[in-house]
Design goal:
Strand 1 (about 25-30) and strand 2 (about 35-40) form a beta hairpin. It is globular and about 50 Å long. It has one domain (about 5-180): Orthogonal Bundle (Arp2/3 complex 21 kDa subunit ARPC3), CATH 1.10.1760.20. About 70% of the residues lie in helices and about 0% in strands. It has about 180 residues and is an all-alpha fold. The chain has a two-stranded antiparallel ribbon. The model has no long low-confidence stretch (mean pLDDT about 95). It has 8 helices and 2 strands, in the order αββααααααα.
Length: about 180
């Protein structure tokens, strides 16, 4: 890999790590769940929709490492290893796998239906599987209750995020292809 490609990867990773953190400022606590509603899942879908697999992985890893060392990049301007090992940790690690899955599934031809499906699989199914299993493990609440409080209340908003990420991803990818700035 050339130095130019490495620099490009790190620039995109930094930009999208910042986007994930900024969209964490949108944080709405739910009284029924230890997991807030955030804009971060939209940023994860955008990272997977726009970036290469490597860039998407770097962006989420950068975000997770910054949060792990205490930089307040997680939802509600929180940070620290305690967040990663607490009830929200599974969702955060699911972000990494979800972004990679989206980037792998999206294909190269900028097809809106394929991108929408990739966002649903990586941005909803993968993230919530990690989140629900970890929430159950950490709290001991059982899988059914983890599904009820850690997944189902968020699905309507995340379907809207899939729509938004798909539309934005198609538009950005189209412009990047025209200007030859493809990540």
């Amino acid at each position: 890999m050339s130095k130019r490609n490495e620099v490009t990867d790190f620039i995109y990773a930094a930009l999208f790590a910042a986007l994930i953190a900024v969209l964490g400022l949108v944080s709405i606590p739910l009284p029924i769940s230890p997991v807030p509603v955030t804009g971060q899942s939209l940023a994860i879908m955008l990272a997977g929709s726009i970036l290469t697999v490597r860039q998407a992985a770097y962006s989420v890893l950068t975000f997770l490492l910054l949060g792990a060392v205490g930089v307040p990049v997680f939802a509600g301007m929180t940070g620290g290893i305690g967040i990663l090992v607490g009830p929200r940790g599974g969702y955060l690690f699911g972000f990494l796998v979800g972004a990679i899955v989206i980037a792998l599934l999206k294909g190269q031809n900028n097809n809106k239906w394929r991108l929408a499906l990739a966002n649903m699989v990586g941005g909803i199914i993968v993230v919530y599987t990690f989140g629900m299993l970890w929430l159950n493990f950490v709290t001991g609440m059982g899988l059914e209750k983890a599904l009820m409080v850690g997944v189902l209340p968020y699905i309507p908003g995340d379907l809207f995020k899939v729509f938004a990420a798909t539309i934005i991803g198609i538009a950005v990818n189209s412009q990047l292809q025209k200007t030859r700035l493809r990540p």
